[in-house]
Amino acid sequence: MQRRFIQIAGIIWTLVYAGIIVWIYATEPRSFKEVAANSQVAAGIYEINQEKFNNGLALFRRDQFRAARDEWAGADPAQKDPRTQFYIAYACYREGWGRLYYDEALFKQGLEAVTRAINLAPNGMLTVDDPNLQMHTAAELKTELEQGIERGWKDLNPLKLFRQRK
Amino acid sequence: MKNYPARNRALLHFIVLPTILLTVGLLGGLRIDAQTRQFIFVAPPLVTLVLAILLGSLFVRAGAIDLHHWLNIEQPTLTNLSHLLTLVALFFASAQAFNSVLPESGLLHWLFSFFFLWTLWTNQFSAFDARRLMKSLVVLFSTAFVLKHLLVSGLYAPEGGWLRRIASALLQGIAIDVPAFAPSTGYISFFALTLYVAGLLLIAPVPVQPGGSLTNTPAVREGALAESSDQTIE
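^ Those are the sequences you sent over. The predicted structure of the assembly is below.
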Protein backbone atom coordinates (compact mmCIF):
# COMPACT_ATOMS: atom_id res chain seq x y z
CA MET A 1 0.00 0.00 0.00
CA GLN A 2 2.79 2.35 1.00
CA ARG A 3 4.74 1.45 -2.14
CA ARG A 4 1.66 2.16 -4.26
CA PHE A 5 1.28 5.55 -2.57
CA ILE A 6 4.94 6.41 -3.22
CA GLN A 7 4.54 5.30 -6.82
CA ILE A 8 1.51 7.55 -7.38
CA ALA A 9 3.24 10.45 -5.64
CA GLY A 10 6.30 9.87 -7.82
CA ILE A 11 4.27 9.89 -11.03
CA ILE A 12 2.44 13.08 -10.08
CA TRP A 13 5.65 14.77 -8.93
CA THR A 14 7.53 13.75 -12.10
CA LEU A 15 4.76 15.09 -14.34
CA VAL A 16 4.51 18.35 -12.40
CA TYR A 17 8.27 18.89 -12.33
CA ALA A 18 8.58 18.06 -16.05
CA GLY A 19 5.75 20.52 -16.74
CA ILE A 20 7.57 23.23 -14.77
CA ILE A 21 10.78 22.60 -16.77
CA VAL A 22 8.94 22.76 -20.10
CA TRP A 23 7.22 25.95 -18.96
CA ILE A 24 10.56 27.51 -17.94
CA TYR A 25 12.12 26.69 -21.32
CA ALA A 26 9.03 28.01 -23.12
CA THR A 27 8.89 31.32 -21.24
CA GLU A 28 12.69 31.76 -21.00
CA PRO A 29 12.81 33.94 -17.88
CA ARG A 30 15.97 36.04 -17.64
CA SER A 31 16.15 36.21 -13.85
CA PHE A 32 14.58 34.81 -10.69
CA LYS A 33 12.42 37.95 -10.61
CA GLU A 34 10.98 37.05 -13.99
CA VAL A 35 10.44 33.47 -12.85
CA ALA A 36 8.34 34.85 -9.99
CA ALA A 37 6.44 37.22 -12.31
CA ASN A 38 5.76 34.44 -14.83
CA SER A 39 4.55 32.19 -12.01
CA GLN A 40 2.10 34.90 -10.93
CA VAL A 41 0.86 35.20 -14.52
CA ALA A 42 0.40 31.43 -14.73
CA ALA A 43 -1.48 31.45 -11.41
CA GLY A 44 -3.65 34.35 -12.56
CA ILE A 45 -2.63 36.64 -9.71
CA TYR A 46 -0.31 38.92 -11.69
CA GLU A 47 -0.69 42.65 -11.09
CA ILE A 48 1.46 45.50 -12.26
CA ASN A 49 3.24 47.77 -9.80
CA GLN A 50 0.83 50.72 -9.86
CA GLU A 51 3.26 53.12 -8.18
CA LYS A 52 5.91 52.51 -10.83
CA PHE A 53 3.30 52.81 -13.53
CA ASN A 54 2.22 56.23 -12.23
CA ASN A 55 5.83 57.35 -11.97
CA GLY A 56 6.30 56.30 -15.58
CA LEU A 57 3.21 58.21 -16.62
CA ALA A 58 4.45 61.38 -14.89
CA LEU A 59 7.81 61.06 -16.65
CA PHE A 60 6.07 60.42 -19.97
CA ARG A 61 4.07 63.62 -19.60
CA ARG A 62 7.31 65.53 -18.98
CA ASP A 63 8.69 64.07 -22.25
CA GLN A 64 11.23 61.92 -20.40
CA PHE A 65 10.45 58.91 -22.51
CA ARG A 66 13.44 56.70 -21.79
CA ALA A 67 13.03 57.06 -18.02
CA ALA A 68 9.30 56.43 -18.42
CA ARG A 69 9.98 53.20 -20.31
CA ASP A 70 12.34 52.04 -17.58
CA GLU A 71 9.67 52.66 -14.94
CA TRP A 72 7.04 50.82 -16.95
CA ALA A 73 9.41 47.93 -17.59
CA GLY A 74 9.77 47.64 -13.81
CA ALA A 75 6.01 47.97 -13.33
CA ASP A 76 5.27 45.14 -15.77
CA PRO A 77 8.29 42.79 -15.66
CA ALA A 78 6.41 39.92 -17.26
CA GLN A 79 5.19 42.16 -20.12
CA LYS A 80 1.66 40.92 -19.59
CA ASP A 81 -0.30 44.13 -19.06
CA PRO A 82 -1.71 45.48 -22.35
CA ARG A 83 -2.10 49.06 -21.08
CA THR A 84 1.52 49.28 -19.88
CA GLN A 85 2.77 47.78 -23.14
CA PHE A 86 0.67 50.34 -25.05
CA TYR A 87 2.32 53.19 -23.13
CA ILE A 88 5.80 51.71 -23.67
CA ALA A 89 5.06 51.61 -27.41
CA TYR A 90 3.77 55.19 -27.29
CA ALA A 91 6.95 56.33 -25.51
CA CYS A 92 9.02 54.66 -28.25
CA TYR A 93 6.91 56.44 -30.88
CA ARG A 94 7.27 59.86 -29.30
CA GLU A 95 10.99 59.53 -28.67
CA GLY A 96 11.67 58.06 -32.09
CA TRP A 97 9.57 60.60 -33.98
CA GLY A 98 11.50 63.23 -35.93
CA ARG A 99 10.50 65.86 -38.44
CA LEU A 100 13.15 64.68 -40.92
CA TYR A 101 13.45 61.01 -40.03
CA TYR A 102 12.27 58.39 -37.57
CA ASP A 103 14.49 56.36 -35.26
CA GLU A 104 14.01 52.94 -36.80
CA ALA A 105 15.30 50.98 -33.78
CA LEU A 106 12.88 52.73 -31.42
CA PHE A 107 9.99 52.31 -33.83
CA LYS A 108 10.72 48.58 -34.09
CA GLN A 109 10.85 48.35 -30.30
CA GLY A 110 7.54 50.21 -30.15
CA LEU A 111 6.01 47.93 -32.75
CA GLU A 112 6.98 44.88 -30.68
CA ALA A 113 5.41 46.43 -27.57
CA VAL A 114 2.17 47.44 -29.28
CA THR A 115 1.90 44.00 -30.89
CA ARG A 116 2.25 42.49 -27.42
CA ALA A 117 -0.47 44.87 -26.17
CA ILE A 118 -2.83 43.83 -28.98
CA ASN A 119 -2.17 40.14 -28.36
CA LEU A 120 -2.84 40.56 -24.65
CA ALA A 121 -6.00 42.66 -25.02
CA PRO A 122 -9.36 40.89 -25.01
CA ASN A 123 -10.44 40.37 -28.66
CA GLY A 124 -7.25 42.11 -29.73
CA MET A 125 -8.82 45.54 -29.25
CA LEU A 126 -7.31 48.03 -26.84
CA THR A 127 -8.51 51.58 -26.18
CA VAL A 128 -6.78 53.89 -23.72
CA ASP A 129 -8.79 56.92 -22.63
CA ASP A 130 -5.99 59.35 -21.92
CA PRO A 131 -6.71 62.95 -22.98
CA ASN A 132 -2.96 63.62 -23.27
CA LEU A 133 -2.65 61.17 -26.12
CA GLN A 134 -3.71 61.75 -29.70
CA MET A 135 -3.91 58.08 -30.58
CA HIS A 136 -6.19 56.14 -28.26
CA THR A 137 -6.25 52.71 -29.82
CA ALA A 138 -3.45 50.17 -30.18
CA ALA A 139 -4.40 49.66 -33.84
CA GLU A 140 -3.79 53.36 -34.63
CA LEU A 141 -0.46 53.32 -32.86
CA LYS A 142 0.59 50.14 -34.63
CA THR A 143 -0.25 51.60 -38.04
CA GLU A 144 1.71 54.76 -37.24
CA LEU A 145 4.75 52.75 -36.15
CA GLU A 146 4.56 50.47 -39.19
CA GLN A 147 4.35 53.45 -41.55
CA GLY A 148 7.37 54.96 -39.81
CA ILE A 149 9.46 51.87 -40.52
CA GLU A 150 8.38 51.51 -44.16
CA ARG A 151 10.60 53.07 -46.79
CA GLY A 152 9.20 54.58 -50.02
CA TRP A 153 9.01 57.54 -52.38
CA LYS A 154 6.68 59.39 -50.02
CA ASP A 155 9.69 59.85 -47.72
CA LEU A 156 11.01 62.39 -50.24
CA ASN A 157 7.88 64.54 -50.01
CA PRO A 158 8.95 67.97 -48.66
CA LEU A 159 5.53 68.45 -47.07
CA LYS A 160 6.66 65.83 -44.59
CA LEU A 161 8.40 68.62 -42.70
CA PHE A 162 5.05 70.08 -41.65
CA ARG A 163 3.58 66.98 -40.12
CA GLN A 164 2.83 66.85 -36.40
CA ARG A 165 3.75 64.35 -33.76
CA LYS A 166 0.72 62.61 -32.32
CA MET B 1 7.67 -3.52 12.35
CA LYS B 2 8.23 -0.96 9.64
CA ASN B 3 10.02 -1.94 6.49
CA TYR B 4 12.34 1.06 6.18
CA PRO B 5 14.68 -0.38 3.51
CA ALA B 6 11.76 -1.14 1.19
CA ARG B 7 10.25 2.28 1.73
CA ASN B 8 13.55 4.08 1.21
CA ARG B 9 14.28 2.05 -1.90
CA ALA B 10 10.85 2.94 -3.30
CA LEU B 11 11.40 6.63 -2.47
CA LEU B 12 14.78 6.56 -4.17
CA HIS B 13 13.45 4.81 -7.24
CA PHE B 14 10.14 6.58 -7.75
CA ILE B 15 10.85 10.09 -6.47
CA VAL B 16 14.56 10.85 -6.01
CA LEU B 17 15.77 9.33 -9.28
CA PRO B 18 13.28 11.14 -11.57
CA THR B 19 13.91 14.36 -9.64
CA ILE B 20 17.66 14.09 -10.19
CA LEU B 21 17.25 13.30 -13.88
CA LEU B 22 14.77 16.13 -14.43
CA THR B 23 17.05 18.55 -12.59
CA VAL B 24 19.79 17.64 -15.06
CA GLY B 25 17.23 18.36 -17.77
CA LEU B 26 16.63 21.78 -16.27
CA LEU B 27 20.24 22.78 -15.63
CA GLY B 28 21.82 21.26 -18.73
CA GLY B 29 20.56 24.04 -20.96
CA LEU B 30 21.07 26.91 -18.53
CA ARG B 31 23.71 29.52 -19.32
CA ILE B 32 24.44 32.87 -17.69
CA ASP B 33 25.16 35.82 -19.96
CA ALA B 34 28.62 37.27 -19.33
CA GLN B 35 27.54 40.92 -19.54
CA THR B 36 23.98 41.13 -18.27
CA ARG B 37 24.16 38.09 -15.91
CA GLN B 38 20.75 37.07 -17.20
CA PHE B 39 19.59 33.49 -17.65
CA ILE B 40 19.73 32.00 -21.13
CA PHE B 41 17.88 28.73 -21.66
CA VAL B 42 19.26 26.72 -24.57
CA ALA B 43 16.84 24.02 -25.69
CA PRO B 44 18.56 20.74 -26.61
CA PRO B 45 19.69 20.84 -30.25
CA LEU B 46 18.62 18.00 -32.53
CA VAL B 47 22.07 16.42 -32.46
CA THR B 48 21.87 15.97 -28.66
CA LEU B 49 18.66 13.99 -29.07
CA VAL B 50 20.44 11.69 -31.53
CA LEU B 51 23.34 11.36 -29.07
CA ALA B 52 20.87 10.56 -26.26
CA ILE B 53 19.32 7.78 -28.36
CA LEU B 54 22.76 6.30 -29.04
CA LEU B 55 23.60 6.50 -25.35
CA GLY B 56 20.27 4.87 -24.43
CA SER B 57 21.06 2.05 -26.81
CA LEU B 58 24.44 1.65 -25.09
CA PHE B 59 22.72 1.44 -21.68
CA VAL B 60 20.57 -1.41 -22.94
CA ARG B 61 23.44 -3.19 -24.70
CA ALA B 62 25.69 -2.98 -21.66
CA GLY B 63 22.96 -4.31 -19.39
CA ALA B 64 22.72 -1.12 -17.36
CA ILE B 65 18.99 -1.09 -18.13
CA ASP B 66 17.08 -4.30 -18.63
CA LEU B 67 14.12 -3.08 -20.66
CA HIS B 68 12.19 -6.34 -20.18
CA HIS B 69 12.05 -5.68 -16.47
CA TRP B 70 11.48 -1.95 -16.72
CA LEU B 71 8.52 -2.26 -19.05
CA ASN B 72 6.61 -5.51 -18.84
CA ILE B 73 3.05 -6.46 -19.73
CA GLU B 74 2.77 -8.49 -16.51
CA GLN B 75 3.50 -5.52 -14.28
CA PRO B 76 0.81 -3.19 -12.93
CA THR B 77 0.03 -0.19 -15.16
CA LEU B 78 1.19 2.24 -12.49
CA THR B 79 4.58 0.56 -12.32
CA ASN B 80 4.97 0.61 -16.09
CA LEU B 81 3.92 4.25 -16.22
CA SER B 82 6.35 5.18 -13.48
CA HIS B 83 9.19 3.34 -15.23
CA LEU B 84 8.33 4.88 -18.57
CA LEU B 85 8.48 8.36 -17.04
CA THR B 86 11.86 7.58 -15.49
CA LEU B 87 13.20 6.34 -18.83
CA VAL B 88 11.91 9.45 -20.61
CA ALA B 89 13.53 11.59 -17.89
CA LEU B 90 16.79 9.66 -18.44
CA PHE B 91 16.58 10.34 -22.17
CA PHE B 92 16.14 14.09 -21.68
CA ALA B 93 18.77 14.19 -18.94
CA SER B 94 21.22 12.54 -21.35
CA ALA B 95 20.33 15.02 -24.09
CA GLN B 96 20.79 17.95 -21.70
CA ALA B 97 24.06 16.54 -20.34
CA PHE B 98 25.37 16.61 -23.91
CA ASN B 99 23.85 20.06 -24.41
CA SER B 100 25.71 21.24 -21.32
CA VAL B 101 29.15 20.31 -22.70
CA LEU B 102 28.53 21.13 -26.37
CA PRO B 103 29.59 24.56 -27.60
CA GLU B 104 26.44 26.43 -28.58
CA SER B 105 27.30 27.31 -32.17
CA GLY B 106 29.97 27.59 -34.81
CA LEU B 107 32.69 25.21 -35.88
CA LEU B 108 33.36 23.88 -32.36
CA HIS B 109 29.72 22.82 -31.99
CA TRP B 110 30.00 20.61 -35.05
CA LEU B 111 33.46 19.33 -34.09
CA PHE B 112 32.29 18.31 -30.61
CA SER B 113 29.10 16.79 -32.02
CA PHE B 114 31.12 14.79 -34.54
CA PHE B 115 33.46 13.41 -31.86
CA PHE B 116 30.55 12.49 -29.59
CA LEU B 117 28.76 10.76 -32.47
CA TRP B 118 31.94 8.95 -33.49
CA THR B 119 32.61 7.75 -29.93
CA LEU B 120 29.06 6.57 -29.25
CA TRP B 121 28.71 4.96 -32.67
CA THR B 122 31.96 2.96 -32.37
CA ASN B 123 30.99 1.98 -28.80
CA GLN B 124 27.85 0.34 -30.15
CA PHE B 125 30.07 -2.40 -31.59
CA SER B 126 32.42 -2.76 -28.61
CA ALA B 127 32.25 -5.29 -25.79
CA PHE B 128 30.86 -3.37 -22.83
CA ASP B 129 29.60 -4.04 -19.36
CA ALA B 130 27.80 -1.56 -17.16
CA ARG B 131 30.84 -0.66 -15.09
CA ARG B 132 33.03 -0.03 -18.12
CA LEU B 133 30.27 2.01 -19.72
CA MET B 134 30.08 4.14 -16.59
CA LYS B 135 33.84 4.75 -16.58
CA SER B 136 33.75 5.55 -20.28
CA LEU B 137 30.91 8.05 -19.81
CA VAL B 138 32.64 9.78 -16.91
CA VAL B 139 35.78 10.19 -19.03
CA LEU B 140 33.77 11.34 -22.06
CA PHE B 141 31.82 14.00 -20.18
CA SER B 142 34.84 15.12 -18.12
CA THR B 143 36.92 15.62 -21.25
CA ALA B 144 34.18 17.56 -22.98
CA PHE B 145 33.61 19.64 -19.83
CA VAL B 146 37.31 20.53 -19.53
CA LEU B 147 37.52 21.36 -23.23
CA LYS B 148 34.44 23.55 -23.27
CA HIS B 149 34.35 25.23 -19.90
CA LEU B 150 38.06 25.49 -19.14
CA LEU B 151 39.99 25.52 -22.39
CA VAL B 152 37.68 27.05 -25.01
CA SER B 153 35.99 29.54 -22.69
CA GLY B 154 39.44 30.49 -21.35
CA LEU B 155 40.82 30.94 -24.85
CA TYR B 156 37.98 33.18 -25.91
CA ALA B 157 37.46 35.07 -22.67
CA PRO B 158 37.62 38.86 -23.17
CA GLU B 159 40.61 39.05 -20.83
CA GLY B 160 42.36 36.03 -22.45
CA GLY B 161 46.17 36.08 -22.49
CA TRP B 162 48.85 34.53 -24.72
CA LEU B 163 46.79 31.36 -25.26
CA ARG B 164 44.10 33.46 -26.83
CA ARG B 165 46.59 35.22 -29.10
CA ILE B 166 48.04 31.89 -30.24
CA ALA B 167 44.58 30.47 -30.91
CA SER B 168 43.58 33.60 -32.83
CA ALA B 169 46.73 33.35 -34.95
CA LEU B 170 46.33 29.62 -35.60
CA LEU B 171 42.64 29.81 -36.39
CA GLN B 172 42.79 33.03 -38.37
CA GLY B 173 39.98 33.17 -40.89
CA ILE B 174 38.02 30.35 -39.27
CA ALA B 175 34.77 31.44 -37.66
CA ILE B 176 34.95 29.87 -34.20
CA ASP B 177 32.05 31.95 -32.86
CA VAL B 178 32.11 31.18 -29.14
CA PRO B 179 29.38 32.99 -27.19
CA ALA B 180 30.57 34.67 -23.99
CA PHE B 181 29.06 33.19 -20.84
CA ALA B 182 29.71 34.03 -17.21
CA PRO B 183 32.02 31.67 -15.25
CA SER B 184 28.98 30.54 -13.24
CA THR B 185 27.85 28.69 -16.38
CA GLY B 186 30.75 26.31 -15.84
CA TYR B 187 29.71 25.70 -12.22
CA ILE B 188 26.11 24.99 -13.30
CA SER B 189 27.35 22.57 -15.94
CA PHE B 190 29.61 20.84 -13.42
CA PHE B 191 26.70 20.47 -10.99
CA ALA B 192 24.43 19.14 -13.76
CA LEU B 193 27.00 16.56 -14.87
CA THR B 194 27.65 15.45 -11.28
CA LEU B 195 23.91 14.99 -10.79
CA TYR B 196 23.71 13.08 -14.05
CA VAL B 197 26.44 10.65 -12.96
CA ALA B 198 24.73 10.31 -9.56
CA GLY B 199 21.46 9.55 -11.36
CA LEU B 200 23.15 6.89 -13.48
CA LEU B 201 24.59 5.28 -10.35
CA LEU B 202 21.10 5.10 -8.86
CA ILE B 203 19.61 3.35 -11.87
CA ALA B 204 19.21 -0.34 -11.24
CA PRO B 205 19.24 -2.64 -14.27
CA VAL B 206 16.13 -4.28 -12.85
CA PRO B 207 13.85 -1.94 -10.92
CA VAL B 208 12.61 -2.40 -7.37
CA GLN B 209 10.07 -5.21 -7.10
CA PRO B 210 6.96 -5.12 -4.91
CA GLY B 211 8.73 -7.12 -2.21
CA GLY B 212 11.11 -4.21 -1.85
CA SER B 213 14.18 -6.05 -3.03
CA LEU B 214 15.79 -6.33 -6.40
CA THR B 215 15.07 -9.45 -8.36
CA ASN B 216 17.96 -11.87 -8.28
CA THR B 217 18.46 -12.09 -12.01
CA PRO B 218 21.66 -12.33 -14.01
CA ALA B 219 21.11 -8.76 -15.20
CA VAL B 220 21.12 -7.53 -11.61
CA ARG B 221 24.10 -9.57 -10.63
CA GLU B 222 26.21 -8.59 -13.60
CA GLY B 223 24.90 -5.36 -14.99
CA ALA B 224 24.48 -2.75 -12.25
CA LEU B 225 26.29 0.47 -13.06
CA ALA B 226 27.56 0.80 -9.55
CA GLU B 227 28.65 -2.79 -9.13
CA SER B 228 32.27 -3.70 -9.53
CA SER B 229 32.23 -6.33 -12.18
CA ASP B 230 34.86 -6.62 -14.85
CA GLN B 231 32.97 -9.17 -16.90
CA THR B 232 32.29 -8.21 -20.47
CA ILE B 233 29.26 -9.12 -22.49
CA GLU B 234 30.44 -11.43 -25.17
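Chain B has one domain: 4-210. Residues 212-224, 228-234 of chain B have pLDDT under 50 and may be disordered.

Shout if you want it in another format.
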